[in-house]
């Protein structure tokens, strides 16, 4: 397209008149022009005007504009000092059946017109130095890049006419209105404007050493080991194998030790062996401070795939950022924008396949190393400034190598049983699918009715059109199915449909997730433990399949699958569960004297005194002796003990009446009664909520007894409040159980061939020789029952233990755990 040229323009008013003439001349609507100052050195370019902007015919004067100008006030920037415009000068709304829906599709041809007009418009700003691209449309129009979530925070050079300017990419402020959690990131990006305008913003430069000879590689490894400076490392993989190892111990240069080129191995077997041995020596040297981004992955991959064992990562940038700012993203692209002046580059790790230039991949590996090191040095200062250095190194980083060992060790699978279970379950699943179809046909009175039980669309039609069931909204998930089943207007035929679907869904999930999970070549299941995995409870571990695609989440294994998991010959499972850990922590955090007394009596009198029975006695005003010790009556109704237990575990964290009804199986009316009784019996719970909220409003963060912090970076709405209330109990519980892993395995008494195998939320499973079992369980109990000091009072959380039993085949299975009492 030919670029239009304007006549001489002296004001924004003249600019808008020229824009109007040019735009209407090509039969496009002109609904909103530019605003601000023509002679400004900063221009803000949004995507398209909203309704308010069209009414006033001026950009960024509506709600999204308020977000922008409020954020810029901190930078000393006002609307009158800058130039403001949009890429598209008309409002983007749909027509016809979707009238009023914002942002309909815009044709490529029309968009190209708008982009050419914008680029030419900006050439007439005589003092322009910086363009702030607000959103993806502006980013693409001016820099030719896509993906504002990736590019936000980057400053890149752009050519405006004959002039070289800088472009800062950030979110469209309309996004902040829709998703307030992004506001802190938006402000971080805008903070860069002042540095750019002062000339202080400069992308780092460094040498990328690639395709080294064996001698060059050995000399660089020796340098990293001898200079005693922190060494960042990173691996890249291709086709399930290690393609290269990157190293960097300064901001000036880094090396990618690539074992292959695009066609073949680069070195002889002897040369590669020597380099790998040198790498092992460096990784195992305790004097070398290793830095990595998600070092858990690099460590377990190198150990399992290459037999190169990383002794201890000193500083993991992903984990450091998680400690500092739990709610924010922790990927290296985000960290690059926050801590360095380097623009976004992470797509380089993929685009080399399109160009065929594998050297681009090796250079990308070096960038990862150098930038990871830069981020680490910046975050180290932040950790010290915020008083989190000790917690990070003594707890978070201490735990990581033990999780690596748990991943690599894995847990043995009974392959024969796994295959048998898979085959039998597939047959059983088909029978249950047919039973579901029969129930559908009976309920709809249509003998040819068909429904795919895995299709939300089919289920939605079945529930809401054909059966006219009533739940909450149009969800077909298990929770809404429970509401439909409990609704008094649901007839028995429809209830049978819902019950048969639940029966099918449980087996379908097991078959797809567990029985079909891939086992590694050595016959073991593995999982990757993630220290950043539970967003609402930092400190808790989550798990998933490993990066080469095998394994599964080993924290949510159903009972039916547990026989598949077995010990190596000559070993047993030792298991412990932290008894009622969250409720005990709440008792001390919320300062509930009655609960403290009940839990302490339960600890001192295990098996004879029950804290949940005591709560039920208080709630329902019956004697302690008359409270049943079981959860369900013969007819399936929950007992008052079970109701009290579910209240204690759920209502501590602002659970509502309807959710309580769902998890307990109580009718809504009875759940409402239980809800009221619970809060009248323990008024300290709501008082604790209010204290917590007041603390967050005052200091903007919370801190656990372990020293972990949750920082308020978003607006204080209902969703944020749920996370705030649950943070201290849940994170404390997670950190406490995790600490038992490394404290036990570092204990000098710990048997050499015993190892932690699994974390299952508040429980741990260890593999040990039977002769070592008593000592292993004693060590775990000692560390689990170390007091936690909360509000100046020591809390001891008891551990309940179990040991696997050998079957007729002399094999110890997860499913055979039997409770034991420790001396």
Topology:
Blueprint: H1 12-25, E1 35-36, E2 42-46, H2 51-56, H3 63-73, E3 83-86, H4 108-122, E4 130-134, H5 136-143, H6 148-151, E5 155-160, E6 163-170, H7 173-178, H8 183-190, H9 192-197, E7 207-209, H10 214-226, E8 231-238, E9 241-248, E10 253-258, H11 269-284, E11 290-292, H12 295-306, E12 313-316, H13 317-324, H14 332-339, H15 348-355, H16 358-385, H17 389-409, E13 411-413, H18 415-444, H19 456-466, H20 478-486, H21 492-515, E14 524-525, E15 528-530, E16 542-544, E17 565-566, E18 572-578, H22 581-589, H23 593-604, H24 611-620, H25 640-650, H26 657-664, H27 668-681, H28 684-699, E19 701-703, E20 709-711, H29 718-746, E21 755-760, E22 763-768, H30 773-784, E23 788-790, E24 793-795, E25 799-803, E26 818-820
Parallel strand pairs: 2-3, 2-4, 4-6, 7-10, 8-11, 11-12
Antiparallel strand pairs: 1-3, 5-6, 8-9, 9-10, 13-14, 13-17, 15-16, 18-22, 18-25, 19-20, 21-22, 23-24, 25-26
Helix pairs in contact: 10-11, 12-17, 13-16, 14-16, 15-16, 17-29, 18-21, 20-21, 22-29, 24-25, 26-27, 29-30
Task: Give a structural overview.
The longest helix is centred in the middle third of the chain and has 30 residues, at 415-444. The protein has 30 helices and 26 strands. It folds into five domains: 12-197, 3-Layer(aba) Sandwich (Uracil-DNA Glycosylase, subunit E); 207-409, 2-Layer Sandwich (Nucleotidyltransferase, domain 5); 415-515, Taq DNA Polymerase, Chain T, domain 4, CATH 1.20.1060.10; 526-581 and 735-820, 2-Layer Sandwich (Alpha-Beta Plaits); 593-681, no CATH class. α12 (295-306) links the parallel β11 (290-292) and β12 (313-316). Helix content is 47%, strand content 14%.
């Amino acid at each position: 397209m030919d670029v239009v040229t304007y006549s001489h323009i002296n004001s924004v008013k003249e600019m808008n008149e020229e824009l109007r003439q040019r735009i209407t001349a090509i039969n496009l609507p002109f609904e909103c022009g530019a605003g601000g100052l023509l002679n400004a050195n900063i221009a803000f370019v949004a995507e398209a005007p909203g309704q308010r902007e069209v009414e006033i015919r001026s950009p960024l004067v509506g709600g999204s504009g308020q977000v922008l100008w409020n954020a810029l006030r901190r930078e000393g920037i006002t609307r009158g000092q800058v130039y403001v415009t949009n890429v598209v000068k008309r409002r983007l709304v749909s027509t016809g059946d979707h009238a009023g829906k914002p942002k309909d599709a815009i044709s490529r041809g029309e968009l190209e017109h708008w982009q050419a007009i914008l680029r030419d418009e900006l050439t007439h700003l005589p003092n322009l130095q910086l363009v702030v691209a607000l959103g993806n449309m502006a980013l693409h129009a001016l820099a030719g890049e896509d993906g504002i979530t990736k590019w936000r925070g980057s400053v890149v050079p752009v050519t405006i006419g004959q002039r070289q300017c800088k472009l800062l990419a950030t979110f469209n402020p309309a996004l902040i209105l829709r998703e307030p959690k992004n506001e802190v990131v938006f402000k971080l990006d805008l903070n860069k404007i002042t540095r750019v305008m002062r000339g202080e913003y400069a992308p780092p430069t460094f040498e990328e050493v690639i395709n080294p000879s064996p001698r060059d590689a050995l000399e660089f490894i020796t340098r990293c080991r001898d200079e005693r400076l922190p060494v960042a490392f990173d691996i890249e993989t291709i086709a399930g194998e290690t393609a290269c190892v990157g190293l960097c111990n300064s901001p000036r240069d880094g090396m990618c030790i690539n074992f292959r080129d695009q066609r073949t191995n680069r070195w002889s077997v002897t040369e590669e062996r020597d380099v790998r041995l040198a790498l092992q020596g460096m990784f195992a040297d305790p004097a070398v401070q290793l830095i990595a981004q998600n070092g858990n992955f690099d460590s377990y991959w190198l150990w399992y795939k290459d037999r190169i064992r990383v002794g201890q990562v000193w500083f993991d940038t992903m984990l450091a950022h998680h400690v500092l700012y739990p709610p924010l993203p922790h990927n290296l692209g985000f960290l690059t924008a926050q801590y360095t002046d380097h623009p976004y580059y992470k797509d380089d790790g993929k685009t080399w396949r399109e160009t065929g230039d594998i050297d681009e991949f090796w250079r990308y590996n070096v960038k990862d190393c150098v930038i990871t090191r830069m981020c680490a040095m910046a975050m180290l200062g932040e950790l010290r400034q915020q008083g989190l250095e000790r917690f990070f190194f003594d707890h978070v980083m201490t735990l990581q190598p033990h999780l690596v060992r748990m991943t690599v060790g894995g847990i043995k699978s009974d392959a024969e049983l796994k295959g048998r279970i898979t085959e039998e379950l597939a047959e059983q699943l088909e029978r249950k699918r047919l039973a579901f179809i029969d129930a559908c046909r009976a309920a709809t009175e249509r003998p040819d009715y068909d429904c795919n039980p895995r299709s939300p669309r089919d289920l939605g039609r079945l529930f809401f059109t054909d059966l006219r069931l009533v739940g909450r909204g149009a969800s077909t998930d298990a929770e809404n199915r429970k509401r439909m089943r409990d609704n008094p207007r649901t007839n028995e035929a429809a209830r049978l449909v819902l019950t048969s679907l639940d029966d099918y869904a449980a087996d379908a999930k097991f078959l797809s997730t567990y029985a079909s999970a891939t086992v590694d070549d050595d016959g073991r299941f593995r999982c990757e433990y993630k220290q950043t995995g539970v967003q609402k409870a930092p400190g808790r571990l989550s798990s998933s399949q490993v990066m080469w695609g095998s394994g599964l989440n080993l924290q949510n294994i159903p009972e039916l699958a547990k026989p598949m998991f077995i010990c190596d010959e000559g070993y047993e499972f030792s298991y412990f569960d932290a008894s009622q850990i969250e409720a005990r922590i709440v008792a001390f955090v919320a300062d509930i004297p009655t609960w403290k007394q009940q839990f302490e009596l339960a600890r001192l009198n295990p098996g004879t005194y029950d804290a949940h029975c005591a709560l039920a006695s208080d709630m329902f005003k019956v004697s302690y002796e008359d409270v049943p010790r079981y959860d369900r009556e013969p007819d399936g109704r929950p007992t008052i003990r079970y109701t009290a237990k579910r209240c204690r575990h759920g209502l501590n964290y602002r659970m509502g009446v309807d959710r309580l009804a769902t998890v307990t199986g109580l009718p809504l009316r009875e759940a409402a009664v239980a809800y009221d009784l619970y809060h009248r019996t323990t008024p300290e719970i709501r008082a604790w909520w209010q204290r917590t909220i007041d603390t967050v409003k005052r200091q903007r963060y919370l801190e656990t007894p372990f020293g972990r912090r949750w920082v308020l970076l978003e607006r204080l709405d209902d969703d944020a409040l749920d996370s705030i209330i649950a943070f201290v109990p849940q994170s404390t519980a997670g950190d406490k159980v995790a600490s038992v892993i490394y404290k036990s395995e570092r204990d000098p008494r710990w048997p050499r061939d015993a190892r932690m195998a699994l974390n299952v939320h508040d429980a741990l499973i260890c593999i040990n020789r039977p002769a070592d079992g008593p000592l292993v369980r004693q060590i775990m109990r000692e560390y689990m029952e170390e007091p936690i000091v909360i509000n100046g009072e020591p809390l001891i959380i008891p551990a309940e233990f179990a040991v696997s039993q050998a079957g007729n085949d002399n094999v110890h299975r997860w499913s055979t755990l039997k409770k034991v009492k420790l001396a």
